[in-house]
Write a structure and sequence with these properties.
The complex is a heterotetramer, with 2 copies of chain A and 2 copies of chain C. By secondary structure, chain A is α/β, with parallel strands linked by helices. Chain A is built from 7 helices and 14 strands. Classes of the chains: A alpha/beta, C alpha/beta. At the A-D interface, helix 3, strand 9, helix 4 and helix 5 of A face helix 5, strand 4, helix 6, strand 7 and helix 8 of D.
Amino acid sequence: MANRYNLMELMVCVAARQLEDGKTAVIGTGMPLAAAMLAQKTRAPNLIIMFEAGSIAPQLVKLPLSVADSYTMTGGLMLSNMDETMATCQRGVVDYTFLGGAQIDMYGNLNSTMIGTDIQKPKVRLPGSGGANDLASLCWKTLVITPHDQRRFVAQVDFLTTPGYLTGPGAREAAGLPAGTGPYKVISTLALMGYESETKRMCVESLHPGVTVEDIRANTGFEMLFADNLIITLEPTDEELDVLRTQVDPLGLIIGKRST
Amino acid sequence: MANRYNLMELMVCVAARQLEDGKTAVIGTGMPLAAAMLAQKTRAPNLIIMFEAGSIAPQLVKLPLSVADSYTMTGGLMLSNMDETMATCQRGVVDYTFLGGAQIDMYGNLNSTMIGTDIQKPKVRLPGSGGANDLASLCWKTLVITPHDQRRFVAQVDFLTTPGYLTGPGAREAAGLPAGTGPYKVISTLALMGYESETKRMCVESLHPGVTVEDIRANTGFEMLFADNLIITLEPTDEELDVLRTQVDPLGLIIGKRST
Amino acid sequence: MSDGEMNTSMGTLFSPPDVEGARQFFAAKSRVLTDKLMSVSEAVTQFVHDGDYFSSGGFGMIRISTAVLHEIVRQRKKNLGFAGHTSTHDFEILAAGRCFDRCDVAYIVGLEVCGLSPQARRYMESGAVQVTEWSNATLGWRLKAAAMGVPFLPARALLGTETFKYSAAKEILCPFTGQKLAALPALYPDVSVIHVHRADVYGNAQIDGISVADWDLARASKRLILTTEQVVDTSEIRRTPELTQIPYWLVDAVCHVPYGSYPGNMPYEYYLDKEHLNEWLEAEKDVATLDAFLQKYIYGTQDFAEYLALKGGEEHLAELRAREPLQRG
Amino acid sequence: MSDGEMNTSMGTLFSPPDVEGARQFFAAKSRVLTDKLMSVSEAVTQFVHDGDYFSSGGFGMIRISTAVLHEIVRQRKKNLGFAGHTSTHDFEILAAGRCFDRCDVAYIVGLEVCGLSPQARRYMESGAVQVTEWSNATLGWRLKAAAMGVPFLPARALLGTETFKYSAAKEILCPFTGQKLAALPALYPDVSVIHVHRADVYGNAQIDGISVADWDLARASKRLILTTEQVVDTSEIRRTPELTQIPYWLVDAVCHVPYGSYPGNMPYEYYLDKEHLNEWLEAEKDVATLDAFLQKYIYGTQDFAEYLALKGGEEHLAELRAREPLQRG
């Protein structure tokens, strides 16, 4: 079993399963895009992928290196611009966005701006929001995929780049963000997490095979909640692995090269 | 002389001379467009004509029947949309607009909405602003072409559809309209008028051949000003008339059919 | 920058800028890929309801969906709201059918250089229609606000005029410059129709030439009916994706209606039929003549194809194709 | 709709939303039809001045004007403001040259999946650059506000975050719904560069594929330099006017630079050179290596053609053409 798939493959497969068919998604490059491609090629053939740079509903043949490169445009229904993608999100037409992030807190708030305390002279300068703040503000459901450790799952983000549930229930609406939007799932190296509907706090829904509650606690900088019906993450199926390895990422850019 | 040209031809020729080469203009159908075409085919070959419906810099081959019809698009540099034309005006890139109007007052305010007192049950319902309010608000210089009589040159418009100088100097700026914009010329059946720079009041600059100051007074419902250097309107040249009749309006839609 | 009082407007806001409600509506609208081909009659029956706020694409007598406008009259839809944006022949048809009772006005009752519509004027002067005044740009930007998902957009038009006073815009001060601006509330039509050059059965659609305000209209509308000159395979859309203006998830119905803009102009296809537009104006001179005219061309016909046949069919349409100045290539 | 206090931001507004000043500038800008073909060196000398606020079109390493970016470094332009909008390799080049000292940040220092730029990080962590934070959509909408000629546009992003706090946006209440919105001030770059697929000598230009924010950028910018893969006759522009994105009166210089986006991707033409992008990242690891690298490729070369020759010339470029997945037709 340990040899049937690696952790990256597990994460991509779990992530892909969160995306319903016939829905719209604005997706970033890397693991989120690998997950969306896998979803499109398995259970969600009519998942509509949009890129923030302006490509709408392409038929992906290969993983792009940029959300604007030629591989985002292959077979597109419409080649437009960033305003169109972002306005579509703001209008309420986009179901999912799928992000990465350097730090995440228990309300799903994300930091991708800096490590340190002074924005004018940060300890580590990171890229900034990019489209993340916009997408997590405007799309209905925000998914995040990230390694699981104490440096990333923190009690307080160094800089609140991108809104999760902010300070808790009602805070997004009070801030003026569109009602009914917010964090949806987090796929980490250890578990699949959602958010408790009452408290809006992050909550483990399933533990990846071999992972314990203690592992989660040891690798999380805040008090993680656990679902009453906590389960073990379903392993990737052979079909998922086959499509992932042969069609989505044959070069192993995301899932790593397979030893032969 | 009386047979060399008619009043419509005179007006179109006088109007055409007001448009400088290498400038931008948003033009409506009818006499304004005939004037713009004549200008383009005589002294202003690089006058850039834009239509509010979205055609940008066409090479006109025939007078369109609508500001959106196929004849607005022939040879266009860019076929775009109404937002592009109007935003271009709002950004300060459009030098001229050229309008008609049912009523005009001494500050160049225009009514094209209604005759009567109750907008919900008008005596005569007219088309409304169309693009006129936008264009006269946003373009640098507004030209108007209209028959000259007491019903049209009125002390007070029944409805202030489109802004001229409103109540006089400074009023446009106080209302929030872009600084430095406003009425520029009026070409009527009797005269060419401008606006006095101090008072912003309409002022005759040249009388059409055979027209007297008394004629103007008798046909104007407000106190018209007259320039110190009042002159007689230069008659259409043979070249202007030839281009107008053979290239701009060979069917006589605007200038009337010529008796043979 | 600005001095003086803030002015208030007194027009009625027929369709409120309820961005949260619109977001909920769009969230629930299906994005599943389904064949939406249907007849004009079905589309109007299913998607246009009495009392709806309706908007018509194109530019009055250019690239309009005459077929749907006739069908709305034929089905005797009533109490519609109407966006009188750059409207001419479209307005004339609905005014002949007395289909609307409230109207956001930018341009109505006229047919540009072709004259004024007697029936449209009678109807608007009768007091039967409540009006709120706007302008072409500001009514278009109301649609853009909705398309962008914001409750308003600022603009520098309308200010200082009675068009503002009888609009439902508001004066605001710019939070950065302090200058006066007109705030334009987002407009979400309940249902709109747009006539396009080509669409696939799902509703992916392309428009050639200028698109007027249809990019924003398609996005602002809660329900959208397309009529199209041509139904094409999706692969053709994917071959020229820069020309796609309307993606399928905005669309509720796709109706194949060749010559669907007649007697209006369809750029690159056929020019307008000025003689028939004059026939309309002539017939409107009194109510009895108009009733007979409507009976002949709309109430007494089954569908738009019958109307085209009455107007001379293929032979006449070929002539209008020959009159069209824009050629492809 | 909203409760709670209005929040204020503390970022510096590097370029004020002075719509009246911009209108005056655009009024005075020549719209005369003149041949604007010139070399990249001339264009940068004439139109990019120390201290200008500069913006770069495309998307970081896709359809960028590498030639102009190199020339800015080569001419040792200093104290630029920079719109860090979707920037990656463009930012990396200017950070290597230490050309800017203030930056509106949406996305900087990263190269998406290709990694982070050590020099860009060093430069941004040194305190030499003043930053104001935004996001891709909101920085893009700032350009749209300028393009539309309004001092601000409202948006529903940024709210509730420190990205807002360190931006120069303002919270406002919608005059219709009362809901909280972020007001985004118009951004007018002093000078921008956009790399396009084809342009005529006057500056009428077309972009194939996605245009990112370049429609608005071209309109918001006071001065605009185009570099183009192909110089075409105006008749070709008039043959496909739906594809025109930039009319000539927006443009100050047209530079003919085939492969002008190298090592970036030019959709439909050539794919990006990931190996050379990695070479950049490698060279940045320490300052001495970087200096030698810049000497070799930028300071020590006359122009962009020399750089292309150093990178393998036609043979290597043909390979990148072969790697491009989008084919015309």
